[in-house]
Amino acid sequence: MTARPAEPGSAAGVSTAEPVIVAALGEIPLGEGRAYAVGDAMVAVFRLRDGSVRAVSAVCPHRGGPLADGQIDRSVVLCPLHLNAFDLTTGCSLSGQPDLTVYPVAVDDQDRVVVSPPVLSPPVPSPVPSPGD
């Protein structure tokens, strides 16, 4: 695999960008996170205590806090600035903030952490008004 910047997807729900090797697994201690550039985005990669890895947007949507420095448990990261909580699997805010982008992440056979661009959901069409509205 080669490290390349993310490219826009060519079709709805599909990304044509290459995965990016961001680090050796050993560079991320258990129970901690680190921030990496993936294309034009900053991505926080977390190594959970069970050894699994998760990757989400590195910047808190509330006030720009560094999520890679946040406290984590089995499934949640807390922003270190104002303790906003986000699910590490879905990116969903648990405290009323906008959701985070989730990045597919894996560990390859050489123990390198590989982050892929997010798969973008197809746009939701606007409802067409019915006659008489």
From TrEMBL:
Provide this UniProt record's keywords sorted from A to Z.
2Fe-2S, Iron, Iron-sulfur, Metal-binding
One annotated GO molecular function: monooxygenase activity
Which CDD domains does the protein's record reference? Rieske
Q: Which domain of life is it from?
A: Bacteria
The Rieske domain sits at 20-114
In terms of PANTHER family, this protein maps to: 3-PHENYLPROPIONATE_CINNAMIC ACID DIOXYGENASE FERREDOXIN SUBUNIT, FERREDOXIN-RELATED
Name of the protein described by the UniProt record: Rieske domain-containing protein
Q: What is the lineage of its organism?
A: Bacteria, Bacillati, Actinomycetota, Actinomycetes, Micromonosporales
